[in-house]
Amino acid sequence: MAEKNPLSDLTFLGGQSRLARFIGRPILHFAAIEAAGGVLMLIATVVALVWVNSPWQDSYNDFWNTYVSFSVGDYHFAENLEHIVQDGLMAVFFFVIGLEIKREMVTGQLRDPRFAALPAVAALGGMVVPALVYFAFNPSGPGQDGWGIPMATDIAFAVGVLSLLGNRISRQMKVFLLTLAIVDDIGAILVIAIFYTSDLSGNWLLTAAILLAGILVLRRLHVWYLPVYLVIGVAFWLAVYESGVHATIAGVILGLVTPAKPLQSEDEARRWANWLQMQNEVHLDDVRRVGFHMRESQPVSLRIEELLHPISGYIIIPIFALSAAGVELSGEVLSDAVTSPVTLGVVIGLVVGKTAGISLFSWIAHRLGWVTIPKSLAGRHMVGLAMVAGIGFTVSLFISRLAFTDDSIADESRIGILVGSLIAAVVGLGILSRTESRPKYADKT
Q1: DSSP state, residue 7
Q2: How many C-beta atoms lie closer than 10 Å to residue 56's C-beta?
Q3: Would the pTM count as exceeding 0.90?
Q4: Theoretical Cys-Cys bridge with 138: which of 143, 244, 281, 405, CB 3.0 to 4.6 Å?
């Protein structure tokens, strides 16, 4: 039987070479799987843990402490690779999150308050209760600043866990968890911006505001040449970085101001396509003109998201995991972690706090008549989804980096994140796997 190949044979991936058939296209197929990003992140985490607990431990620390510097006129930039990943590459990750939030607000679940109410209330509970649980273990002392760590939900890992269950998970359950995670991301972004920002520079903040205003003016003038926005966007990121506000906030803001509505309606694009078909003689300029109208029937935000999502999920997040998950697992470190209020606060916050907060807030809102919990989200389904939401890997590690400067406390928090996220994934998977399999049409009833 001939191999199905939807790709053009003019390209390498569409060709019939052994390299394309046995390596190129399988990699492309793997990248299309929802759980692929989570798998790569997990691999990077294991590599980091093995590397930092091997005889080559010093090379791990030396590599991430390698400095990169450059000067332009009187301006001098110098940061190590760890901070470049945290402040630079992760800004791209948060830019993609900003695009996802904007899309959901304009055309998705967050657009309709009736659909957004339940996951929004659940997300609020999933942020407040874990923070309170952590604070109960760390009301004072060097660990108190880590209360934001168990508030986060890792979208990639959470969706990856759900994808393992196939048709046991209805579309309504997936949408609920995704919307909850997006609202959770909004909360995490606000926490980072408000509570993990210090030493503000008024001049750089003013510069950032001027650059942002420039972007909005260009949007108003219908200037859509992306290189212009790329240059201004990089300058905006740099101004935010120098202002003292965490640089990842720049990524979120840029994502939120990116247009999420198409300039061209689908009907108009279709008319242009029909016009091209009716021409007796087609010139290259005609094809370019029609191509423009076809392209503009898709929102700019969606086009950028489709471009950056693989880069963010398959490159940036694994690199971040490699840089952030390197925790020494010696007997002494593990012994300290077992009794550490930081570790316990993170683990119990992610596993118990998330589950209790999401379930309890949803139930209270339902009893008060604020929201309606559909049957596909009731009982065991809600508890299982709430447990899966306790996978706080990426953003939790990120907040841990911001919260602690003491390496020993940071290591204790990261052990808590790894253990808590693992427990949440395994237990959540176990709960949801015991639910009844649902046919695809179940959500229509």
Answers
A1: S
A2: 12
A3: no
A4: 143
pLDDT tens readout for residues 263-294: 776 777 777 777 777 777 777 776 777 777 77
**C-alpha to C-alpha distances, 73 to 16, 26, 35, 233, 398, nearest whole angstrom:** 52, 48, 45, 20, 32
Which of 85, 165, 212, 153 is CA-nearest to residue 380? 165
Collect all residues with Cβ–Cβ distance below 8 Å to 283 and sequence separation of at least 6.
none
67's torsion region: left (phi>0), alpha (psi -120 to 50) or beta? beta
Q: What sign does the CA torsion over 419, 420, 423, 425 have?
A: negative
Confidence band, pLDDT 50/70/90 cuts, at residue 310: confident
DSSP notation for 362-379: HHHHHHTTS----GGGST
**pLDDT tops 60 at residue 392:** yes
- Alpha helices of 296-379 — where are they, by DSSP H? 300-311, 317-324, 331-339, 341-348, 354-367
> What integer is the mean pLDDT of 318-325?
84
